[in-house]
Amino acid sequence: MEKIIVLTNEKERIDKYLSEELEYSRAYVQKLVNEKLIVVNNEPVKASYKVNENDEITILGDVEKEEDIVPENIPLDIVYEDEDCILINKPSGMVVHPGSGNFHGTLVNALLYYTKNLSDCNGIARPGIVHRIDKDTSGLILVAKNNTAHALLADDFAHKRIKRIYLALVKGVLKHNHITIDAPIGRDPNNRKKMCVTAQNSKRAVTHVDVIKRYHDYTLVKCELETGRTHQIRVHLAYIGYPVFNDPVYANKNATSFGQYLHSSEITFKSPITQKELHFTAPLPKEFQETLQKLDQELIEEEGK
Q: Which of 15, 84, 134, 136 is catalytic?
């Protein structure tokens, strides 16, 4: 059995909400609903039920697969920690939480080995997880150590009080120094593993993009999220014709194992209990830095001709 507290005020059908939260197919979630294995506030609901903020969704039975989520001794790059939260610099290639066949090597497996003090608002598969970044996106991610901190941080995320900055290397040379992309994002109707800009079953998504440096065929940009949709930066940049370099889903099917050149580099938030404002940065991964050095060298050589 698992319980999930709804932390969003954007109402959507429970089958759609849970399929995204649990990373299972919508049809499978509908099956659970039809079998009355999903109840909301202790009452069975239909698949068309629209979730409300603070709804308590209980899943009766084990939908997390038979394999237990076990602690694993995986090193963590801890940038900051106090009694209420942990800020981690996640490496590219690490999945945040178990699901869809990934039950080992995730951030959650590492967290369970590191500490027993993690919130359980989001169920057994996502202890401490307040927000997510993609598997192949590196950088800063906040983890809650108790339910009070989790609720406060989730509210800060929902009301845009937490500032996040990403660095991305994109294909192509952006002409404008600043771009604001305001385009709704929803699940791709032809591939549920992808998101896309669409007017159908979508949510408003806003990304602010600033050019840091232009190269011959690439641009290094800074992205600030105003909203936090799944794959938002990757989808938005691909939508305007400048996909993130080496993105295996939205740019290059032959991408290397490093994945997309997208890094969660800065975060500003208030400590959930003390309300002290905190600001942290995380350096680029080695592969990202080496690629930029190569591009810098190409510019130097071109200028010397």
A: 134
